[in-house]
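Example 3.2
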Amino acid sequence: MSLVSGGVSSKILHPARSRVSKDLDGYSLPGGGLVNIDKTGLDGWSALVAVVQATYNASASAGVRAVWLYSPDGTNYDSLDDAVASGNYYGLSFTAGATRQATVLIPIITPYVRILIINKDPTNATTINVWTLTLR
């Protein structure tokens, strides 16, 4: 076993990324709607990366928001209000008719994470793509 300063294995310190998963592909998110992406199997990983892409309708009046909720058991998740109050969200930039993409780094602090994509436009659908990967 190769050791580095402090007696810790260099393999443990070597960063790693998982393969990229496409969780949503051309998903039509209705006006005022939301969609869940539940991530499991997170033990051993320290961060989740979500790449969220939104293509807004030409008549859209608001953008989308990605919110992450934590769960110790995969059943009981943080409430949406408490997650937002804790700052566990990212609002994509918005221009009607445009496509916007943002990469969001989410710390993994529980074995389960739910990503909510919320369409803040009450009327118009938005086309959503989401890719995720994990880091250690």
